[in-house]
UniProtKB/TrEMBL annotation:
Domain Dienelactone hydrolase: 68-284
InterPro entries found in the cross-reference section: AB_hydrolase_fold, Dienelactn_hydro
Secretion signal span: 1-20
UniProt keyword Ribonucleoprotein, yes or no: no
Keywords linked to the UniProt accession: Hydrolase, Signal
Record-level Gene Ontology MF annotations: hydrolase activity
Short name of one Pfam family: DLH
Protein name: Alpha/beta-Hydrolase
Top-level taxon of origin: Eukaryota
Amino acid sequence: MRSQFSYLLLAVLGLKSTIATYIDPAPLKNEHPGQIFSSSSGSTCCVDGVINTGNSTGRFADINGTSTYLAYPPGRNPKTNIAILYLTDIFGVQLVNNRVLADSLARAGYFVLMPDLFEGDPVPSSAMGGIPSTFNITQWRAVHTQEKVEAIIASSISSLRKQFGAKKIGAVGYCFGGKYVARFLAPGGGLDAGFTAHPSGVTTDEWAAVGGPLSIAFGTLDGSNTPAQRAAAEAIFTTKNLTFQTTLYSNAEHGFAVRTDLSIPQKKFAQESAYFQAVRWFDAWIK
Ligand SMILES: *[C@@H]1O[C@H](CO)[C@@H](O)[C@H](O)[C@H]1NC(C)=O
Ligand SMILES: *[C@@H]1O[C@H](CO)[C@@H](O)[C@H](O)[C@H]1NC(C)=O
Ligand SMILES: *[C@@H]1O[C@H](CO)[C@@H](O)[C@H](O)[C@H]1NC(C)=O
Ligand SMILES: *[C@@H]1O[C@H](CO)[C@@H](O)[C@H](O)[C@H]1NC(C)=O
């Protein structure tokens, strides 16, 4: 009992000392511009794996004023009543990896809706591996405020319910998008379950407000989720008796679930596993 308590205290204290180092978006210097896996070595029951020809197969539509990428589950009358809202990293719907990953989630039986959170103005993919000096990220952040991003997400959730008849909505969020999975998984946010990989800039208050089932994939090389921050989040979820799952992948950097160096076995394993982690989470809690 006592040791559990000191662990919790340590985690919280550890967090306090590192809280000033939260960076959103996370630094990109350890990121690999990288690929997304095209087949799975895993054999999870009933998940069809991923087809990656390098091109996405969904389509863009204007959904209540926002350019939105839609990926439908296979079948002649694809169901839209069980949906995944895909909240991207700073590279947005324009990054093919995000679209291919959305297609992959659709292949697992979900209708996937991925709004353009940045209104045609994502961070350019040339910034992977390090923001170039020619790109002013401070200015970019000032344009794409939390309020604007949240208005787009709220509109997407509303459209999913009203226009597409979604009865259950899960959300995935990678990097930047992870913060918003946490925020909209608070009671009244409109989500039924959430998954995030290497979320950036999530505060302890935001973790504490989460009410729905939440799964998180962390990587050991991700500076935006330090050991103390991960432990603090887990302590909060445990204290709340939240339905949650966290995994930690070795040799996995910020961004690994969306783009990584697939020639390195641990990174390839981490990316594939994060995909299956998300699918199994939604199979359990919203299907
Ligand atoms: C992918 O799209 C490009 C054009 O955008 C096309 O040249 C290429 O053939 C496509 N590849 C596949 C496998 O469909
Ligand atoms: C980046 O943008 C911010 C806010 O607009 C501005 O204050 C700053 O001077 C800019 N930095 C550079 C290097 O242009
Ligand atoms: C469309 O967006 C507006 C806000 O921009 C919102 O008030 C409205 O509920 C949305 N409509 C639908 C059908 O989602
Ligand atoms: C935790 O939640 C589960 C259901 O989700 C419940 O069965 C269990 O009693 C709860 N434990 C505590 C200590 O409240």
